[in-house]
Amino acid sequence: MQECFTKNLEARDLPTKTVIVYADRAEVKRILELDLQQGKNIVVVQNVSSVIERQSIRVEGRGNTVIQEVQYIELPIETVESNNQQVSEMEQEKIQVENEKVLTEDQIHVLQKRLEVLDGVAGQIGQNVIIPKDQKMMSKTASNLKQELREKEKSCLNLKERLDAIEKNLDQLRCKHEYDNHKRSINITVQMEEAGLAELHLNYQVYCVTWKPAYDIRASTSGIESICSNKIKLLYYGLIEQKTDEDWRDAELILSTATPCVAGSVPTLPTLAAAFQRQTPNIRQRNASSRRKPISNGSEEDMGFGSFDYNEFTDAAALQRMTIAYTASDHEHSLGQNYDHLPCSCFSIENPATILSDGKSYKVQISTLEFEPVFTHETVPSKTASAFLTAVITNTSSLPLLPGMASIYLNNSFISTTNLKSILPGEEFRCSLGIDPSLKVEYKPCSRMNEQVGFMTKNSLCTHEQIVSLRNAKASQSALITIREPIPKAVDEKIKICVLSPDLRPGRMDARINKDQHLEWAVHLAPGEQRDLHIKYTIEYPLNETITYYNQVKAC
Question: Domain total for the chain?
């Protein structure tokens, strides 16, 4: 019988070569370099992640290594805590901290008693019962005792916080061992033609991983006309979070928007049937009850009121669904939504990075992009008498910009954050850069005049006139500003609205009424120029009616 050699490796100690991070999981490639004997060898990778997708495990052999079999083994452990070194070390540390805390409390008690004695002696001095020979020494002793007492109380507080942290970690560790009392390993059977160094590549997928894009948009402006169109720098980041119980150290990262495939065969396509819809009054109740069912059947002890079945958390398929649900709940920041219309993209991170399994967000830089913006100003004087600087940017890069939060900086000063929508190469988007104080906007009081018009049928005519004053305080830079002013929209055919100023005749490009019934008036201001814009419109309606104004809510 051929002799079989066994080599045990710890999964967390294996070097991480590449990690491809998807929206709800990650594909990890680890390198196994070890000396194997000639013949049959069994390489045991112990303590693999509890959220591993067992069907995704693949092993590649390099050189004269022949992979014969790969097995995923999950065995229950009955005595977890007694054999767990980490729990034992925490218990010893807890006992040591408790002893230090008790000793410190005793010292505090002694100091308090000594201070009480000194206070009693001081009281006798005040009553002239006894006069100490050295009152100065007594005062110094009391001051030293109070200082020492404060230090001991501070030390006792630190020990209490340290003890609470140890107990919290110990409870979490015990809870984890109580509900996840399984030992997982991957057994790789390798046939070696001759003894020597073997290199194996272990690939697998794990859940409890996600990533989302984030941006820094940095712009700068100047008072010089020639450099008004400074480039805008967009820093493209990826924020990665993972709780897989394994750390990825100095790994090559790839961020992907694709949906990975686990199975190695072509999926079967079911027959699509068409039928008449029938009334099912209790379908909502049945669906609700089915959603509340656990993924695996729980025992009577485990499924009491207010408890949960940990099998639901350790099952990889369940974790996948939970991660997708969590990702879809945050519709503004997640990657798991609204990507069907976007092409699959992969972003390779230039520098190796370390991502720890602590649930924290780790930022990696995808790319640095530069765009040639067109700066314009916008104002809504009826809401706020300020001019907002806006950059109109065209995505001239080859990378799609995915939905995510963007931090905006103007002249190295933080302005605000905004939610960036998906922008494909060649598409245009607008970015608000905050208020420009060099453009002054004044919204003067409006003028209203009512009169009666008509010969046979009398109607009321209300003339509304509004003046918006603009001034460009820049000494050497012109500005293009667009004013937006609401014009009432008639919801009854008996109400007639006519805009008198500005002139909206066909062919005019600087003023128009948009689909929301807002007047958009674009004005070019030379350096130092001031201009008054007259907005005038009339509303005609039956004499016996009264006009009321309200804001229409846009339909979602």
Answer: 4
Q: Would you state the pLDDT for residue 65?
A: 85
Residues 122 and 157 both lie in one domain = yes
Q: Report residue 396 as tokens.
A: 């001239």
- In whole angstroms, give the CA distance from residue 109 to residue 96: 20
Distance separating alpha carbons of residues 336 and 257, to the nearest angstrom:
9
For residue 231, which amino acid is it?
K
User: Nearest CA to 239 among 357, 404, 409?
Assistant: 404
pTM of the entire structure? 0.68
pLDDT at 301 over 50: no
Most confident of 58-67, 69-78, 141-150, 440-449: 440-449
Compute CA distances 181 → 259, 304, 312, 483, whole Å.
31, 20, 14, 67
Residues 372 and 518 in one domain: no
Spatial separation of the C-alpha atoms in residues 315 and 331, rounded to whole Å: 26
Q: Do 215 and 332 share a domain, yes or no?
A: yes
Same domain for 459 and 474, yes or no, is yes
Element (H, E) at 311: helix 311-314
Is there a single domain that holds both residue 429 and residue 444? no
Judge if 362 and 222 occupy the same domain.
yes
H/E stretch holding 536 reads strand 530-542
Q: What Rg do the C-alpha atoms of the chain give, in angstroms? A: 37
Using the predicted structure, report yes or no on whether residue 2 has a pLDDT greater than 70. no
One domain, residues 396 and 446? no
Closest C-alpha to 199, from 16, 317, 35, 319: 35
The verdict on 159 and 235 lying in the same domain is no
In angstroms, the CA 325 to CA 33 distance is 38
Calpha distance 21→240 (Å, rounded): 8
Structural domain of 498: 440-542
Least confident of 83-97, 277-291, 385-399: 277-291
Omega prior to 281 cis, within 30 of 0: no
Q: Which of 178-192, 275-289, 335-349 has the highest mean pLDDT?
A: 178-192
What confidence score (pLDDT) does residue 297 get? 44
Determine which helix (DSSP H) or strand (DSSP E) holds 92, and give its type and residue range.
helix 85-126
